[in-house]
Backbone:
């Protein structure tokens, strides 16, 4: 037996050696790197005596498979009350078939219900953030070198490689293809390594003969007399696993429903659902600065004065929220995010915008000059950030008109030197417009007097050098405002003609300063807007009938 096992291990080891060499300069170096990797103190401790619990897990899985068969029979026979003789043979403990277009390495989607019940699902790191475990299978292992690799579709997406596993986490005996639930840490070279592992019972391999289990009369099982008479008794379906603390109940997964697990009724779900605290009110978007990021741990922190004053801690964010590699990031850069609070009330960042502050050419520079540097590579004054935070609060409170007027004042004041502490190249108006939603819908909610001021500001902005995308956005806003403004509204008639004349002057000179205005489609749209405004001026100037 020892010789056969050694031969089998040797054959597998040869297959693993080639893959191990691809992940490290030498097998010994990779094994050393695996041994040096440490499990974070915050990750829950791995299951004690993994090798010793393998047999008990296998027995539990067999019982779960039998119980699942009983539950499936109950669900299937509930309509007619009898077992169907035409039903396919039930096979327990094997992977389901790969769906069309599916991924062979997506083990989680193919686990049978009995195995799913053994999954831990998630853990909390030291910040209280809920982190999901990966679920994969043993792809290769070499007894001589003492390491192998795990295959998992999600971890391959996240880290771009199979996950290294050291021998201290491997069962003895081990089996290629055996499913495993695990967390990931990174070594000094940024390569993923398995930690906090939990081995799941082995799955039936393709081509392995199916052994029909003998089912005896026992609580929760199917008795022989019941099978003969066509009636089925069994234990109630397993309750759905509760969601992580602080997260909403998601109900049975689509895979579980497809596998035949019945959905709980509303009454049973209500009685089984744990009490959860009332949801927090929606938080406004916040500005902060990137304070730290640790690639080896895969998370970092954002400094935000407003949230720190409330919670006395920085804001956590996960590696999945980092910007694309080509955009880059640096410590101290300004970011915008939506706050989210975990079960411990600790702030976390969601929907991070890594370049939230639009810029316009310096008012003191030559016309047509672009920004001195991208906003992600520069810092902003405290007065500028305070003004932007105020605008975010106004937008969150649905005070759109006040936000637009404040943005125009800030941008005009910066140009005129009213507040020397405000950065002159920050486009406060576009900062607000970017957050008001679709142009036509937003314009309909703004008063006509504010529309008139905004059109004049946009006409000035169109005289600066803009990207095609920004120019298209401002033209859409100009179209929405010019078509919806009512010149007879309060406060508009006495100023409308003079404002339209200024707008016409800016648009006439815009092609000299902004090449985008020379694009035929943009030029025609602006011309149509100007003609519409001039037609409304003529209506105001028409003499009124007098008796």
Residues:
């Amino acid at each position: 037996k020892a010789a056969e096992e050694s031969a089998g291990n040797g054959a597998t080891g040869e297959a693993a050696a080639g893959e191990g060499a691809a992940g490290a300069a030498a097998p010994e170096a990779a094994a050393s790197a695996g041994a040096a990797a440490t499990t974070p103190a915050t990750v829950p401790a791995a299951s004690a005596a993994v090798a010793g619990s393998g047999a008990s897990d296998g027995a539990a899985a067999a019982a779960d498979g039998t119980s699942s068969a009983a539950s499936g029979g109950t669900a299937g026979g509930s309509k007619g009350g009898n077992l169907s003789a035409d039903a396919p043979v039930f096979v327990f403990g094997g992977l389901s078939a790969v769906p069309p277009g599916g991924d062979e390495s997506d083990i989680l989607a193919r686990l049978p219900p009995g195995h799913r019940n053994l999954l831990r699902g998630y853990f909390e790191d030291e910040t209280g953030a809920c982190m999901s475990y990966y679920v994969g299978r043993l792809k290769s292992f070499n007894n001589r070198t003492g390491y192998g690799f795990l295959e998992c579709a999600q971890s391959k997406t996240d880290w771009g490689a199979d996950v290294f596993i050291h021998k201290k986490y491997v069962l003895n005996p081990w089996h290629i293809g055996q499913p495993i639930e695990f967390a990931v840490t990174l070594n000094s070279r940024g390569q993923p390594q398995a930690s906090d592992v939990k081995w799941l019972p082995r799955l039936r391999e393709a081509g392995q003969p199916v052994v029909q289990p003998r089912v005896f009369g026992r609580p929760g099982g199917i008795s022989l007399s019941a099978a003969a008479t066509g009636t089925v008794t069994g234990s109630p379906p397993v309750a759905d696993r509760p969601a992580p603390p602080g997260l909403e109940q998601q109900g049975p997964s689509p895979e579980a429903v497809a596998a035949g697990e019945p959905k709980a009724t509303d009454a049973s779900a209500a009685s089984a659902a744990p009490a959860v605290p009332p949801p927090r009110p929606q938080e406004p978007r916040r500005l902060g600065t990137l304070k730290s990021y640790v690639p080896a741990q895969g998370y970092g922190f954002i400094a935000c004065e407003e949230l720190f004053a409330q919670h006395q801690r920085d804001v956590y964010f996960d590696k999945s929220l980092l910007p694309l590699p080509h955009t880059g990031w640096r410590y101290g850069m300004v970011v915008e995010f939506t706050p989210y609070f975990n079960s411990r009330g600790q702030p976390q960042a969601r929907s991070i915008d890594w370049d939230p502050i639009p810029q316009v050419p310096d008012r003191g520079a030559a016309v047509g000059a672009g920004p001195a540097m991208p906003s992600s590579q520069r810092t902003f004054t405290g007065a500028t950030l305070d003004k932007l935070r105020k605008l975010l609060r106004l937008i969150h409170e649905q005070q759109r008109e006040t936000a637009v007027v404040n943005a125009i004042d800030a941008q005009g004041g910066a140009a005129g030197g009213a507040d020397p502490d405000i950065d002159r190249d920050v486009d406060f108006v576009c900062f607000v417009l970017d957050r008001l939603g679709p142009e036509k819908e937003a314009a309909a909610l703004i008063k006509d007097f504010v529309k008139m001021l905004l059109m004049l500001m946009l006409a000035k902005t169109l005289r600066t050098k803009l990207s095609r995308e920004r120019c298209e956005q401002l033209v859409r806003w100009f179209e929405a405002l010019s078509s919806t403004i009512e010149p007879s509204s309060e406060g508009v008639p006495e100023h409308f003609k003079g404002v339209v004349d200024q707008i016409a002057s800016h648009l006439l000179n815009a092609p000299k300063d902004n090449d985008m205005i020379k694009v035929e489609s943009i030029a025609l749209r602006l011309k149509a807007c100007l003609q519409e405004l001039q037609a409304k001026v003529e209506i105001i100037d028409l003499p009124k009938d007098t008796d």
Q: What stands out?
A: The first helix runs from residue 2 to 23. Residues 20 and 26 are 8 Å apart (CA to CA). The radius of gyration is 33 Å.
